[in-house]
Structure formats: C-alpha cells, structure tokens
Amino acid sequence: MNRNEMEKINPATLRPEELEAVYAISRAVALAENIDSALDEIIRLARPVFIFDNLVLYLKGKETLEPAYARAIGRGRFKGADLSWGEATAHEVLQSGRLLSRIEEGGEEVKDRTRFRFLLGLPLYLENHLEGALVFIRFGGPPYTPDQVRLSEFIAGLVAQLLGHDRLVKQIAHLEAERKLNQLQEDFIATVSHELLTPLGFIKGYATTLLREDITWDDETRREFLTIIDEESDRLRELIENLMDSSRLQAGTLKMSFQTLRLDSFLRDVAMRALSLHDNLQIELQKDLPEIRLTADATRLAQVFDNLLTNASKYAPNSTVTICVEPEAETVLVKVADNGPGIAQEHLKSLFKRFYRVPTPDKNVRGTGLGLFICRQIVQAHGGDIWAESEVGVGTTFHIRLPYDQQESNQDLSLRESSA
Ligand code: ADP
Fold it and tell me: Does residue 160 share a domain with residue 12?
C-alpha cells in the first residue's frame, strides 16, 4: 500500500470496536520486536472484529514468492485450513499491484464450509516498490464487508512499515559489522606495522652507522652493533613467523600433524630444552609423571610449552618453574607455575587475545602479545583449553587441559595405581 492509499483509510468510518482494534494493533506493532511477533499480535487483536481462518505473508524472493509467515487459526484450523494458503491470489496481487477479493471453490467432494474460500489479497508497498502480498482467507463466508476490507488495508500498511523497519535494522547491522571489521583491520595493520618497524629501525640504524665512512669503529663496538643487528633480525623473523602462524590458526589453515605422544617423555624434553635456553630459571618437573598418551602435534604442542617457559624467563625471571600433571576422567591437566611477580586479576581474561600485553613500565621486556594467543589456538586445535591463574606477588600458573587417549593410557594409569 502506498502513501496515497494509506491516506484513503478514514478511521471515522470504522465502528468503535474496529477503531479500538486499530489503535491496539498500532500500539502492538510499534512495540513488536520482529515481524513474526507483530503478526501474532495483529491476529490476536484483529480477530474479534474481523473473522478470518488463515493469514499468510508472501514476500518477493529472488525468483518466486516466498511465504514468510503463515498461521491457521479459527474454525477451519483442523480441516480445511491446510487446503488454502492463497498462493495463486498472492501471485495475482503481485502481477496487478492491487487489492484482490475472490472466492475459490474446493470442489463438490468438499462437503463442509471449507468448500468456499473467501480470499482477500493485499499488495505490500515499500517506498512505492511492490515487496509482497498479505492474504486473508476465510472459509464459508460471509464475504468481507467494506469496513473489513479497509481494516485489512490498514493492517497491510502496517506490515509494509514493519518490513521497511526490518530492512533498515538489517542494513544498519550490516553497516555496523562492516565498520567493525574495517576498524579491526586498521588496528591490526597499525599494530603489525609498528611491531615490524621497531626491529627494522634498529637494523637499519646500526647498519647505516657501521657504513659511515667518516667514523672508524673499534672491533668491540662493531661487534656490539652487529650483535644488535643479528638479534633484531631474529626478532623480525620470529615476529613474521608468529604473525603467519596466528593468521593461519585463525583461518584454520595451519596444518597439524597428529600422532600418539607420550606426555611424560614429551614434558621431560620440554624441561631439558628450557634449562638449556633460560639460565635465569630453575625447572622442577614432577618426578612420578603418569604415563599418559595423547594424540597431538608434537611440534605445535612443544611450541605452547616453550612459549610459556620463555614467558616465565621474561616476565618471572629467577623463578622456580614447576611442571606437574593431574590426570582427570577424560582429560589431563598440565600446570606450569612460576613464582614471579604475578598478573593482576583484570588482565587475566585478556591475556590470550591477539596483541594483548600487560602494560608495564619495563620497556626492556619486549614482545608482541601474540604468544599466548597462538598457545590458545594450538591447544584448542587439540580439543583442549588453556587459562591462567595468578596472584600478584606470588606467581602465575598456566593450566593446560588436554583430552588423552583413554584406552592406551588407562592401562598405564591403572598399573601405576596398583603398584602405588
Ligand atoms: P608477549 O610475551 O609477546 O608480550 P604473550 O602473548 O606471550 O606476549 O604474553 C602476553 C602477556 O602476558 C605478556 O606481555 C605479559 O605481560 C604477560 N605474561 C605472560 N606470561 C607471564 C608470566 N609468567 N608472568 C607474568 N606475566 C606474564
């Protein structure tokens, strides 16, 4: 219904109960959360003044008319209601663009009142575009009165408004999602550029300095500068590898190679590696490690533990890091605990987000905030979970829960239990 036709509806010609229904419907529509609940309310409020058995909303699909809402109500509900959904009428309305009132006959074999179906098809105009049709179906008459036709036109006008509103809400949500995505991409590029430019700045600066012909550098200084260039290049490579891992993990394209792995020997390797890499840590590995087998990608899982221990060396230097294992019903919990400065509660949840770093005045401890993000993605790819618990001044414990191979491990566990 377009604006001109809407204006033709004159509330003064409606009976008091119809007028009351019109107001109640307007109010209900204004409050409705979506088209379906609005139509449910319209049916509830319109039925006392306007008898119909079926109501169907058809909307223009890509090629055909699609029923978007259909309700069978009233007396014909259990018999003939399903027989008529007014599809042909809706098509005609869409072709002509006008209101259509017609009677369909079900055939002589239909003996009850559902034989004659009184259909009222109304076009739904949205900004002068025909978007669909609303069809009222009444079994067995009587024919619709002019007042009832006007009321149905009024309802169709409201439904068209609802469609417009619905479309607007969807468009806004779509725009908002796009805006958020753009913002995320911009933030990502800004952070990545900054992180890449920092080591590159050192490399370029020290290389340019060394190349200056007006200054002669002694061996020690030259060596110091070259060491910085060397370290910063490593950092740049690590950063790019982390970035690639993180985007592959997010896109789900990082290939994992799963195989059976003995958790006890795996953790012994982890501890040995950490001892040789971080001379500011003491590592205490649980002595009686249960013989648990996991299905895991050994390289990726090692990356998780190596990262936790590198973090301990960076953020909890001179700690004693304990690694222990607690078998559970279907999973195993591995705890990596340090006795470093700890992490304040408000940061714990965000720790595993991409690029998140706990703000610290110590600018010497460098990082990108990608490590724990990658850890979580890898652990999740194993069907597990990782989280941190911490107390400031006491230390931080990282928990890694992983599913284990029940059949093979249980045997070992029960053996251990019986020999204990
Ligand atoms: P990065 O080390 O590159 O900053 P991570 O994602 O590995 O990134 O760690 C995120 C943050 O978590 C670190 O910046 C640090 O503030 C904090 N953190 C991680 N491990 C510890 C730890 N063992 N003790 C205290 N803080 C930690």
Answer: yes
Same domain for 391 and 279 = yes
C-alpha 141 to ligand 1 mean position (Å): 76
Q: What secondary structure letter does DSSP report for 390? A: E
Residue 120 has pLDDT above 50, yes or no: yes
* Ligand 1 pocket, mutate which of 318, 372, 399 (most atoms under 8 A from CB): 372
DSSP state string for 184-225: HHHHHHHHHHHHHHHHHHHHHHHHHHHH-SS----HHHHHHH
Domain limits for position 296: 254-415
Q: Which tops the pLDDT comparison, 277 or 112? A: 277
Q: Are residues 208 and 270 in the same domain?
A: no
Q: Identify whether residues 170 and 73 lie together within a single domain.
A: yes
Tokens, residue 376: 């979580």
Q: Could you identify the atom of ligand 1 that is nearest to the CA of residue 316? A: 24
One DSSP character per residue, 113-154 reads GGGEEEEEEEEEEETTEEEEEEEEEEES-PPPPHHHHHHHHH
Token pair of 96 as six digits:
């002509």
210: amino acid identity, one letter:
L
At 322, give phi and psi (nearest 5°): -105, 140
pLDDT of residue 285: 97
Is residue 53 within 6 Å of ligand 1 at its C-beta? no
When comparing pLDDT for 192 and 84, which is higher? 192
Of the candidates 232, 251, 270, which is a domain's last residue?
251
Tell me, yes or no, whether 242 and 273 share the same domain. no
Answer yes or no: do 24 and 54 share one domain: yes
pLDDT in tens, 311-335: 999 999 999 999 999 999 899 999 9
Those residues with Cβ within 8 angstroms of residue 194's Cβ, 6 or more apart along the chain or in another chain: none
The answer as to whether 397 is a domain residue is yes
Q: Is residue 403 part of a domain?
A: yes
Pocket mutation for ligand 1, best pick of 191, 339, 357 (most atoms within 8 Å of C-beta): 357
Q: d(Cα 163, Cα 191) in Å, to the nearest integer?
A: 42
Domain boundary residue, one of 122, 141, 174:
174
Q: Which of 236, 240, 311, 319 is the best mutation target for the ligand 1 pocket, counting ligand atoms within 8 Å of the beta carbon and taking the most?
A: 311
Residue 27 shares a structural domain with residue 102: yes
CATH of the domain at 198: 1.10.287.130
